Amino acid sequence: MEMEKSKTRTFFYVILILVIVFGLLFLFVFNKFKGEDNVFTNIEKREELKCKFIGGEMVSIGCGIAGCSSRCSKVFSDGGESCSDSSDCKGLCLKNENEMRDTGEFKRTGRKETLKTEIEGCFGEVGYGEFDCSGKKIGTCQKLEILNKCESNFEVKSGNLKRMLSGCTI
Prior knowledge:
The protein has helices at residues 2-28, 39-53, 97-103; strands at residues 56-64, 67-74, 82-83, 93-96, 106-109, 116-119, 125-127, 130-131, 139-141, 153-157, 160-165. It has 170 residues and is α+β, with helices and mostly antiparallel strands. Strands 3-9-4-10-11 form a five-stranded antiparallel beta sheet. The N and C termini lie far apart (59 Å). The relative contact order is 0.14.
């Protein structure tokens, strides 16, 4: 008699656990196909609203197996203004690698061990990712505190390109 009660109780708990698991699965997985009314979208919307409320802007920080993620970033009031040194800005003074490629200022040749980087107006690499440009480079003040991690930028110090900030890493 006691053995049957134990089996019945165990069966009841197994069924209860299965109902909970399938309920959560439905709530979090299958509900995403219903458009804007899923749990994850609502969380993202709340975070975006909070961010806008404090004067920030959402920034993509990378994508992985679980999807893409973003964070709220402080917006610098002098973002986008011209600069020749990070001391001219509230954030960093940056020169974007892609923009330099588009204008022909930035060239990379070779592979791995023979990789050579050439930047117009600079005399060459004086350290890993540092270039002596004789004070000629003008950048723009960083707009957001958090940099987009999949964008390559150089920090501009005294008109020289001092260090590369890049990488698609979080």
